[in-house]
Structure formats: C-alpha cells, structure tokens
Amino acid sequence: MVLDRDLCFVEANLAYQRVTERTRDQLIGGNIFDLFPNPGEGGRRLRDSFERVLATGQPDTLALIPYAIALPVSRGGGFEMRFWSAVHTPLFDEGGKVAYILQNTVDVTEIQRLKDMAFGPAGALDAPLESATQLYQRAQELQETNLILVEETNQIRNLFMQAPGFMAVLIGPDFVFRLVNNAYQNLIGGRAVIGRPLAEALPELEGQAFQDILHDVMVTGQPYLGQAASVMLQRQAEGPPEERFVDFIYQPILDARGAPWGVFVEGSDVTDRVRAERQQKLLLDELNHRVKNTLATVQAIAAQTLRTTASPAAFRESFEARLLALSATHDLLTQSVWQGAPLEDVILMELRPHGVERYQLEGPEVALSPAETLTLGLVFHELVTNAAKYGALSTSEGCVRVRWQVRDQDGRRLELTWSEEGGPKVSPPTRQGFGSRLIERSLQGDIDGEARLDFDEGGLKCHLRMRLQAQQTGDAAAA
What we know:
Elements: E1 2-4, E2 9-11, H1 14-20, H2 24-27, H3 32-35, H4 41-56, E3 60-70, E4 79-92, E5 98-107, H5 109-119, H6 129-162, E6 166-171, E7 176-180, H7 182-187, H8 198-201, H9 210-220, E8 224-233, E9 242-254, E10 260-269, H10 271-308, H11 312-339, E11 341-342, H12 343-351, E12 359-364, E13 367-368, H13 370-389, E14 399-407, E15 413-421, H14 434-442, E16 449-456, E17 459-467, E18 476-478
Parallel strand pairs: 12-14
Antiparallel strand pairs: 1-2, 1-5, 3-4, 4-5, 6-7, 6-10, 8-9, 9-10, 11-13, 12-18, 14-15, 15-17, 16-17
Helix pairs in contact: 5-6, 10-11, 10-13, 11-12, 11-13, 12-13, 13-14
C-alpha cells in the first residue's frame, strides 16, 4: 500500500485488501492509525518506522511487528492479533522531498504462532518436545526464507526504479498510476503521479492519442507498440509543453481469468535520436544545395575573371588564385563548426574569393560560438552565392557592404546589415527558394535570432539580429 505524508492511504492492492478485510474504498483517504489503531508497542514501532523514512529519505525494514487488526462486524467484530514483516520505501516529489511511503508487507502470523508453540508456557504444548523443536526449526526456516524474499523484492524494486527505460504501471479504467520508475519521473518532469488518474496527473495528454490507445489495450487485451511517437509534455511547472519522441509498448496486465486490469508501460525517450536524424537530413539537403551553389560560384568567378583579364595567362593566374581562396574559406568553415570563429573571418571566407575591391566590412570584433559560426556561415554562403549569380557580384561594378554593431548594456545583441550596390536591378522573386528559406529560418533554430530580406530595387538588403552566446571583446575594426 501507499501512504502520503499525513499517513493516509493513497493506494492498496488486492492482497492488502484481503488480509485487512477492507475494500479499497474503505481504505483510500483514511489515516492508517485511525483505521487500524494500536496504542501499544506494535503501533509505536510502526509509527517510528514511518517517521524515520520521512525524516531520512531512506528505506526502513521491520522484520517482525505484532499488530492487531480490527475484524469487520460480519465476523463478530473485535481484534485479531497478527504478525507482519514490512519494508517502507520513500517516493519523492519533483523537489526531492519524500511525498509518499510505499509499504511492502508480508503476513508472517503463522510463522510466529509456530515459534510460540515451540517456546510457549509449560503445558501449552500438545506435542512432545522433539515435535515442538522441529516446529520451531521450521518456523526459523520460513522466517529466513521470508527475509530472503524481502531482499529479492527490494532488489527487483531497485532494478525497476533504476532501469534506463521508463516504466509505469496503470490500473483500472481511469488508469491510476500504481508505480513509476526514475526514468519515467524524468520524462514527465518529476511530477508526483502515484495514486492519481492519468487525466489528472498528466492533463496535457488530453487530445493526444495515448489515452485512446490505453483504452483499446484494456478492452482488447492486446499490446500496442509505438515508435518515435511525438508527445507533448509539460516538463516544467510554469513552462510550455515540450515535444518529446518515445518508443514504447503498452502491455496489458491480466488477472487469473485472463481479463485486463491494468497496463504496464515501458519505453525509451528517443528525442535526441529523432532530432539527430532530422538534423542529418537537413545537413544532407544543405550539402546537395551547397555543391550546386559551389559550382555556380565557380562559374561566376570564371565569368568575372574573364571580364577583367586581358590574356589567357592572366586569366589562369587570377582564376586559380580565387579558386584557392574559395577552398581556404571552405576549410575555415569546417574548422569553425567545432571551434567557433570571429564574425569577420566567417564573412571573409565567402567574400574573399571575389576580390578585396568587391566588398567593405565595418564593425567591432565579435566572437561567435560554434553553433553561431555554423549558422552564419551558411547564411553568408547563401548571400554571396546569390550576389554572384544575380546580384552585385555578378557585374564588374557591383559592391557588397556589411556593417554590424553590438547593442544592449550586456553587449550581447548583434545587429548586422548586408547591402548590395551597383548590381542589376532587383525585383522580388515569384517564389521562395531553398536559399531564401535557409537565410530567414536558420536563425530561428538553435540560436536566438531573426533574418529579414528586403528586395530593394537598388540592391538586395539582409538584416540580421541575434543574441550572442560568446563573451564579446575588442574595439571597432574596419576592412
């Protein structure tokens, strides 16, 4: 059975109900010492055990405790002395405080009666001394077996609580939580759910498919397997629901007649795997797109070099130099994914192959984190590629100006403007391509930022704003 901090019943299984001759409705909500009063030694030892668990947060064992149970009126009333072996285990709330006490109890009355027979007062034994001694030896064997069972029960409970996959036991038509392990507690944000129906314990599941699936499992008695299922969980008390992905199985728990009376829930949180697979797909799409853009950049560099060189020898020298610069900038991007980089270097790695006369940079030193370096590297690659194919870098007179500054008192808000001048007349596109989507949406992912494209007639402008993660140092620099 399970008690709350006021020692009132939260849950009691069928075996507990049978041995105490009480129904679940008669137990739930009642104080254990009101329902089963015992002012003597047994009551004191039981209360002391509960108080030790609440005070220390550690399990407590009562190997043997005498405790009289009030008999129902149907059996003539009165009390019946019984003997118990009990293990009290703490269950914690999200703050790490003991919220409930789980009691695993074994009725050892028959063992104790055998012991009393062996050491009872003179004349109380109907059997000869040798038989009484045998009875006592048998009682000791049973008691030792009971202690072994208690230890095995504790080991199984520990395995359940420490299992890497999440586990829970739900009972009845309302799917009341009977047991949950540590991994399940972590999944739901450490909320106290024992003894509460699913709809009350996890109200954010309303409208999601999981309750309907549980109902089908209870009705049909057939298990259900889910893979990479999306579930919205409010893992922080004041926070919004968070999307997680889980592999899980709902296994019906059957009684002796084969009828379902509960559901065993087991699974794994695979959110990191699903997000990694999605990120991998995005990177593959970006790789395919980048290869095409790189070829387009090479083509644009070749065309520009042809327009500005007078001989094949000069063309070869300039063209090879720009290709080497393009290769070096790609190396820098690869390294910056892991190490971070200065903002100016990230911009230059894309603009430098087009020649120093084609761009102007102005702004302070800004240190970017690895995530910021990767994101802005992709953004500037798209901007430079677009400028080389359609914008200012597609003509011999065009120029790109990039200006940035860091605002806010804590020096953490970057504002950057990319402006193209001297290129072909610009008009808004009729459809949004992959590059435009990447520029506008990439800053909304892992970093706190936004991007806006303005298709001004005189040249494309891109406005970037983002909150920086790395510490900023240095004075203004111009290139």
